[in-house]
Amino acid sequence: MSGPSTYVPQNGFLRWFESRLPIIGLVHSSFIAFPNPRNLNYFWTFGGILAFMLIEQIVTGLVLAMHYTPESSMAFASVEHIMRDVNYGWLLRYLHANGATMFFIAVYIHIARNLYYGSYKAPREILFILGVIIFLLMMATAFMGYVLPWGQMSFWGAKVITSLFSAIPFVGDSITTWLWGGYSVGNATLNRFFALHYLMPFMILGVVVLHIWALHIPGSNNPVGVEVKSQKDTLPFHPYFTVKDAFSLVCFMVVFAYFVFYAPNYFGHSDNYIEANPLVTPAHIVPEWYFLPYYAMLRAVPSKLGGVCALFGSILLLAFLPWLDTSRVRSSNFRPVYRAFLFLFFATVIGLGYCGSQEPVGSVVVWSEILTAWYFIHLLIVLPLLGFFETPRKMPASITEAVLGPKGASAAMVGARAAAEPSVKG
Amino acid sequence: MATATIAPGTPTRRDFLFIATGAVGAVGVGSVVWPFINQMNPDASTLALASTEVDISKLEVGQIMTVKWRGNPVFVRHRTPKEIQEAQNTPMSDLKDPQTDQSRVQKPEWLVLIGICTHLGCVPLGHDGAYDGWRCPCHGSVYDTSGRIRQGPAPTNMAVPTYSFLSDTKLKIG
Ligand code: HEM
Ligand code: FES
User: Fold this and answer.
1) Which residues on chain A place their C-beta less than 8 Å from a C-beta of chain B?
2) pLDDT at A418 over 60
């Protein structure tokens, strides 16, 4: 699908340029002529949204960094300075803070889409693993970013999460001291977190390039999960998908703007407007909402090392999904039993998120334990076994048949060719 | 040629040079990487064991004070006779990290602890929890009046720092 480019340079200069650096042709074949399955639904627009959010975070972060001071006695004040004095500083910071939230909303939808439509299955395993790596890098980036305003939640979040490493037998304490650069989270920690928070989004950008490269080898999966069989199953990326992506992005930005302008602290925590105090832990510390399910798993296991293993294991297991799922059928639309289990799994993750936000007493503890157990049972037992026991529904022979029905499929031949025309002209 | 007479599988001079060069290269790379890793460790000025002097004359029986030492909180607790008794009478079999109360204090009335939960580093709240010692607000670890772990995810007792009594009312931590 990513064969030689069909790009035809329009004039002598472009011909001269293209024969030396064929980059316009690369863009043309990747984002203009690229054939996408014609049946993609709106869940396929979140990749574009994610790309936009990454750039948005880099741009707002860059300008925040021009006013921010990564020094423990001044960091909190410099963020207040951004909020009160810097021209439009409040806007830039609210965009960046809520941008992180919107970024995670988009990535969770994107991952859920992959689980539902089985997009991780062959031949897209590497593509999926690159996605898990991006997700991990995002979490590390957001975690370090949240430390920068140096409020109470920043400080204690940093303390608890870095202390996770102290659970490693023998070398744990040396590792935490090394991470902190002292006996506790302090100025050295803040400084290095700032440097890394600045760096990591660019690492993400690099992995995103690999991710798209790996995507453009087999092309996109689609809601029926049948591979593209002929050109009539596809439509060119431009204008069909550029417009669809753009429409979805605008809707997404309306929600984003709502939070930025009308509820900018909705996802934040008021304790983070109190400057960090190493002597007092806030009565109820919670991480940012996007970490809550993992936080609940950490607390569910009544042993320090066990909790840490559950936390990291739950994410690392995702990378093995292509092999844990033994069914060859991709789309859940044709797997009724799996589909029910998958919705249960989504409910489990949301339930864990709720548990993570509550104080660890009474039934919250019990539910955290049950849901954590089910998370692993689903991935390690249900998923491998279902592939053997479930009888999938009958699949359509092709994407076109799924869209137009068996009769329409043959009639569509002509129409689809005409629709594909712009790929030659564009 | 000399090499023609050597049986296959016998190490040659070239194999030796190959491995030796590789080994020297690995040591070289390691010695360049190490400074980049070690720069993140606390430097000598941070390590220099700073000490703090604390005036404990104002601390009434039953009160706890928190002082900052090396960036971390240290609890000084003036224990009541009841608290001391509870701590001393606890059977070792009840403890997750068995330590006698006597081994954790210099004078029974004064308990000095690094005020960091051994789970994930929060500062526990005093006079709280089922054992009237401390309770950690983060994930619910409970410590007794000797700072020993009794319930919850923390693996060990709260640590006792090095300290000494300069006088009856002055304590030196560190
Ligand atoms: C993957 C992209 C990124 C994510 C998910 C992210 C996330 C975050 C988060 C959650 C915060 C805390 C917001 C708050 O509560 O105040 C933050 C703060 C910050 N970030 Fe980022 N960030 C990203 C990229 C960047 C980049 C590329 C830079 C620098 C060029 C940057 C610079 C900053 C600065 C200076 C702050 C402190 C100011 C503040 O707290 O608002 N960020 N980031
Ligand atoms: S940090 Fe105290 S219980 Fe987790």
Assistant:
1) 156, 159-164, 166, 177-184, 186, 188, 192, 278-285, 298-299, 301-304, 307, 360-361
2) no
